[in-house]
Amino acid sequence: MKTKKGFDFSVLMGAAFLMATSSIGPGFLTQTTVFTEQLLASFGFVILTSIILDIGSQLNVWRVIGISGKRGQDVANMVLPGLGYVVAALIVMGGLGFNIGNIAGAGMGFSVIFGMDTVTGAVISAVIAISIFVFKEAGVLMDKFTQAAGVVMIVLTLYVAVSSAPPVGEAVMKTFVPDVIDPLAIVTLVGGTVGGYITFSGGHRLVDAGVVGKEALPQITRSSVTGVCLTGVMRVFLFLATLGVVASGLQLDPANPPASVFKLAVGDIGYKVFGVVMWSAAISSVIGAAYTSVSFIRTFSPKIENNYRWFVIAFIVFSTVVFAFVGQPVKTLILVGTLNGLILPVTLLVMIIAAHKKSIVGDYKHPVWMSIFGVIVVIMTAYMGVLTIMKQLPKLFM
């Protein structure tokens, strides 16, 4: 199906779903349930605020990438020579570290569904992810897979939300008039939704598909906003499911909060449903992290550019081998988590600067309100990043 401008609609939706499913990983599920348990109905305000900030942030990145037709690392190098290599290094390190966690999440999902060993489930999941990139039409297959995974997660979580019978009226009211406002939760959600490699995943997919230039601006804008909204829909459904469970007086299992939400809301079958959602979230994040991380280095060498699918496969294989033989190295995850907190403010600031450089965007005029939104997010996430570093660095030396 083609849009009025001749762009493939499936590519635009594929980019949106790639971004959305990249952000909806194992951490997303745990983060949402824990914050809901702490803030109750007032967490709706946090979700709404974060969605607004996410849209402002993502529009800055996707529009600059789309108008220039260049990936994030190349834009960064044009803003300041050499900066693109630094950004690429941060993205790849962060993506690799979190992909170990994503592989673990996929293994856990299979373990819940089929009762198999987690490592075996992780290896099978990795093979499924790798199979997508074996084919030349990897981009099309990736689009279809992430769309399917996204729909499965959203539909099943909606089912659990309805089953938990949440106080919807209270949730709506507290979304606009909260009992408590938690700035830390807002910044955490923004970083988890558009931080690290995530906000670039869909933008780079559009560049690969040739959806670039001023004539593609409406499609780029629509796809970027759709991605954030899809993530928001999933978060709202999970928020309502958790709120329904907590409001009924039931206690979540601190060892696995999201799993207990599904089980308490729907019973034993709910635990199997959680396994499907966990696997879908994890495997789509594996694909998104691997694809986007490699996209940040593919323009640095013709060998990588010409064989990028095999580099994506190697990325997934390495992540799986580390998990299978080492497990989830705690200090590595702490380090990449700390670095990830620095990626969004750095890359977003670079994109805002690039949006006003004619050598990058030509005669395109970037809306002032987008730049203002972007600067707000830069300040918020930079502050959060500094706090995270101060908190996490001591753990690296324990």
Automatic annotation (TrEMBL):
It is a multi-pass membrane protein. It is found in: Membrane. Pfam families: Nramp. Keywords: Membrane, Transmembrane, Transmembrane helix. It comes from the Bacteria. InterPro entries: NRAMP_fam. The chain crosses the membrane at residues 39-57, 78-100, 112-135, 147-165, 185-207, 228-249, 269-296, 308-327, 333-356, 368-390. Coiled coil: none annotated. Its main location: membrane. This is Divalent metal cation transporter. It comes from Megasphaera stantonii.
